[in-house]
Design goal:
Strand order of the largest sheet: 4-11-10-9-8-5-6-7
CATH topology of the largest domain: Aspartate Aminotransferase, domain 2
Distance between the termini: 53 Å
Radius of gyration: 25 Å
Shape: globular
Number of helices: 15
CATH class of the largest domain: Alpha Beta
Largest sheet: 8 strands, mixed
Oligomer: single chain
Helix content: 25-40%
Order of helices and strands: HHHHEEEHEHEHEEHEHEEHEHHHEHEEEH
Number of strands: 15
Length: about 425
């Protein structure tokens, strides 16, 4: 019995391929074998357990299919770096004595009032429609969906997960934005997909960089990109469409369209596989999280069918509340006021940074991505000044250091103070570099 098989707890008590797979998966999860470690050879495991070589090989194939390991030819089978479930827990809220410019939440004062559930409304029963007609009508009107097929899911990330599961296979390569949303890349890793980071500018994917990668799908954040505020315009949408192979699946994430100050510019509605997810929670509040998915007939049919045999439908109470808000004649003014206020607060910080010679661009949303020499030093200095911000490391892959500052609830004087702290920290970092 080899040292590796002993460490994995493999012995003759293992009965078959299914049992072996379960044991190995537990061992990979409990830390006995870490990412990058090589598993014992198939013949070693067969000798230790008494199982046939083909049985062990079948177990290893299952681990590969689940995205836990990969084979590297004669070099062997290696454990992949996948986030554990505990690693994906949300970050704790900042300490109450700090101003929260970190968590990315909307300003509650700018959210519409949640409508009451009307008394006497009939219960929605099994077998009835999964999308309320009033919600579908409202979403089609607000997002100009025309007669494209639609279905409703529990938010944009839920929609992305369902589209990826319906249209792609384990190991497929998906272009993602860098800097970009870490929850998305964590999701794709858990699903066994390969994220391919592609740099962006203020208009989204940089076309020639996107053209240089071999991918099966691309996830495009249409506007209010997190963390940079980038927004795709008509020209960039056409450029992205032009560099993508016709068989590439395009998934468009429009999670904050209701408060975006720019129009939605679709990438390519003529390609065989496309889908767009319009969310409402950034504008209406996290408790009203749902999204409408549109796309080509086959993609929407697959998402709808898979949803039907799982949760079945998104709560019609939630659907009704969202429809009520969208149909309220006061809502357009409420959304415009929110968008204008977020723009004012965002631009106030950008202007304060410019006064110190720090030039940043954030065309939409309420996050500002600020390049810095040291993320740790900037975060620490701002904490000492009473502000919680987010280090950029988790958002970026191969792009320079930065911090994300959420401006949704920042006053102008707070933006001025934050800019001053960042400028002073940058000056200190330069001085330390010169004296080193």
């Amino acid at each position: 019995m080899s040292e590796q098989t002993t460490r994995l707890g493999l012995d003759s008590a293992i009965r078959d391929a299914r049992h072996l797979t379960a044991v190995l998966e537990r061992r990979l999860g409990d830390g006995r074998v870490r990412a990058g470690n090589r598993l014992p050879t198939i013949r070693e495991v067969a000798k230790t357990t008494g199982l046939a070589v083909n049985t062990v090989a079948a177990s290893y194939r299952r681990l590969v299919e689940r995205g836990l390991v990969e084979t590297r030819g004669r070099a062997g089978t290696f454990v992949l770096d996948r986030p554990g479930w505990a690693d994906l827990d949300p970050d704790p809220a900042p300490p109450p004595d700090l101003v929260d410019a970190a968590t990315g939440n909307p300003d509650p004062a700018l959210l519409p009032e949640i409508p009451c559930w009307p008394s006497g409304r009939q219960h929605h029963l099994y077998g009835e429609g999964r999308v309320l007609p009033e919600l579908e009508h409202a979403m089609r009107r607000v997002f100009e969906l025309g007669d494209n097929p639609v279905t409703v899911v529990s938010g944009v990330l839920d929609g992305i997960e369902r589209i990826v599961a319906a249209r792609l296979r384990h190991g497929d390569r998906i272009a993602v934005e860098t800097p970009g949303w870490p929850a998305l890349t964590n999701l794709l890793r858990i699903m066994g997909m390969e994220s391919v980071p592609v740099p962006i500018d203020t208009k989204g994917f940089i076309p020639d960089r996107l053209a240089s990668v071999d991918i099966d799908a691309a996830i495009v954040v249409s506007r209010v990109q997190n963390p940079t505020g980038a927004a795709v315009d008509e020209e960039r949408a056409a450029e992205i469409a032009a560099v993508l192979s016709p068989d590439v699946l395009v998934i468009e994430d429009d999670h904050a369209g209701l408060i975006a100050p720019v129009p939605f510019s679709p990438v390519d509605r003529a390609r065989a596989r496309w889908s767009t997810i319009h969310g409402v929670s950034k504008a209406l509040g996290p408790d009203l999280r749902l999204a409408i998915v549109t796309g080509d007939e086959d993609t929407v049919r697959r998402v709808r069918s898979r949803h039907a045999v799982g949760p079945g439908w998104v709560s019609t109470i939630l659907q009704s509340m969202v429809a009520t808000i969208l149909d309220d004649e006061a809502t357009p003014a409420t959304m415009k006021h929110a968008a204008d206020t977020y723009a004012e607060r965002r631009n106030s910080l950008i202007s304060a940074l410019a006064d110190h010679g720090i030039v940043v661009h954030a065309p939409t949303g309420y996050n500002v991505w600020i390049p810095v020499r040291s993320e740790a030093a900037s975060v620490r200095s701002l904490e000492n000044a009473g502000y919680a911000v987010t280090p950029g490391e988790r958002y970026r892959w191969g792009t320079p250091p930065a911090i994300r500052v959420t401006t949704s609830r920042l006053r102008a004087d707070q933006g001025v103070e934050i800019a001053g702290v960042i400028a002073a920290t940058e000056h200190n970092e330069v001085q330390q570099t010169r004296s080193a």
